[in-house]
Amino acid sequence: MEKPVMTDGKRRKRLTVLAALLGGVLTLSACGGESGQDDDKPGGKENSQAKVDEAAAKDASDARITITPKNGADNTGILSDVKVSVAGGKLIKVTMTDTVTGSEVAGTTSADGKSWKPDGQLQRSRKYKLMAEAEDAKGRGATENSSFTTVSPEHSFIGNFSPEAGSTVGVGMPVTINFDKAISNRKEVESAIKVSSDSGQQVVGHWFNGNRLDFRPKDYWKAGSTVTLDLRLDGVEGAPGIKGVQQKSITFKIGRSQVSTVDVKSKKMTVERDGKTVKTIPITAGSNQTPTYNGQMVISEKFKETRMNGATVGFTDDDGKGEYDIKDVPHAMRLSTSGTFIHGNYWGGGAFGNANTSHGCIGLRDVKGANDGKQDGAWFFSNSLIGDVVIVKNSPDQTIKADNGLNGWNLNWDQWIAGSAVGG
Asked: How many other CB atoms are there within 10 angstroms of residue 280's CB atom?
């Protein structure tokens, strides 16, 4: 079949229609935007957003803030765990808030503006919020926020220590630390505690149980020396899930050397100071039925007057009442946890130097009211320091146990070292 022949008029009409259609397409394309980019084409919108992101990135601050601990942390330490640092800029403001009280926590920014930390110890079991702002060299700002919870008492431990910072004590005073939680990781804890003396004496720790750690040298401290206790327990795990929260250093002084020896048989006490006898005092010690412990004892407390009731230490009558109840014992100084004292006695009559009549304490002649400084009890009280040594000998009783008071001197050096978790 022959194809139809297109006339010139028909050809011109078809070309006109085709041109109109192409012009419409071109017009539609030109409406895509000023850039001429067609967002409906693959990668159109993504490319546009990328340019926006690139521009924002070029304007971002170079300051990069780091807050420790991380947001949402719990069991945060209360001493040194919290800090803010910045790289590529300087801190301009840090605000830390106690969410319970709403109060702001005081803190200090370093001189170079690179770090910040709280000024003091935080509260345990407390939630805090922290916001930090910084600027880079071009003045562009950066901000970070964090919130965290500090460690609870149930998951932390502290050590209560003696003697007190800045005190002056006798040559027998050990450093004793009583922990509020039982310590099972004894080596880690003992390693985080250092006791040293400027006398150069070697000092070793001894665990009496999981809650008590004492430190002492082989022989009494050197008179006039200075002893330093460094507690570096912050973050140390004392037992599974239980961490320390202390970071402290204290010093105390050792006074003159005073060692007093009570001879129960002769009923006399000889007081030696710096190796010289300064006084001999008649005493009354424990009777044969209630004898005084033998051994080296350390004065741990002093009371101008105190009450002594036999019921508190097991001396009771048939009715369960104390065999004695003296409300105003003068010039009393504790020698043991179990109730041994050396004290003034105004009811002893002629016993001093002649008879042992007490329930185990060492009595010195004194007066009711503790107001006569000429009495033996008053003299010894005013001339004694916490930490002075009182040695008892020739008593029919046993030697006092080392953990009954501050009386670790009754262990020889090998026995003492054997109680250390880190060795001598």
From this structure: 12
Alpha helices per DSSP H over 87-203? 186-191
Q: 45: which 2 tokens? A: 């919108």
What global pTM score does this model have?
0.78
Span 61-72, pLDDT tens digits: 999 999 999 999
Give the side-chain half-sphere CA count within 13 A for 49.
5
- Dihedral of CA atoms 339, 340, 345, 347 in degrees, nearest 10, equals 60
Name the token pair of 103: 């109060």
Phi, psi (degrees; rounded to nearest 5) at 322:
-65, 140
Query: How far is Cα 124 from Cα 337, in angstroms, rounded to an integer?
Result: 31
410's CB contacts (< 8 A; 6+ apart) are 295, 296, 399, 400, 401, 402
Cα(147)–Cα(69) distance, integer angstroms: 8
Q: Are 392 and 292 in contact (CB under 8 A)?
A: yes
- In the structure, what pLDDT confidence band is assigned to residue 75 with cuts at 50, 70 and 90? confident
The CA distance from 47 to 207, in Å, is: 71
DSSP structure string for 194-218: EEEETT---EEEEEEETTEEEEEES
Structure-token pair, residue 421: 């978790």
- Residue 288: CB atoms within 10 A of its CB come to 9
Determine the 3-state secondary structure of 303 from DSSP. Answer: strand
- Provide the token pair at 75: 């069991």
Q: Which DSSP state fits 153?
A: G
**Cα–Cα distance, 220 to 230 (Å, whole number):** 20
Q: Which residue is listed with tokens 């054997």?
A: 418
